[in-house]
Design goal:
Elements lengths: L1 E3 L2 E3 L10 E2 L31 H6 L6 H4 L1
Antiparallel strand pairs: 1-2, 1-3
């Protein structure tokens, strides 16, 4: 998830970008094997809420090894 001025964005995959990264989502937001492929629709309102590390991991989040060291 990223923020720039008054806008936010959700990156579908790890990639470089010019926006300020504000967090990671512990659940997959895109899965072409599911129907629907994403858990929301175009125009949906999304609210970002902070969670702690324990909740992030409980929901399936993964912390890359290079972040841990």
């Amino acid at each position: 998830m990223a923020i720039a001025d008054a806008s936010t964005a959700v990156y579908p995959a790890e990639s470089p970008g010019g926006w300020n990264i504000i967090g990671n989502c512990p659940i997959d937001l895109y899965d072409p094997q599911k129907d629907p492929m994403i858990p929301f629709e175009v125009g949906s309102r999304v609210k970002f809420v902070p969670i702690d590390k324990a909740e992030f991991l409980k929901l399936g989040g993964i912390i890359p090894q290079e972040v841990i060291q």
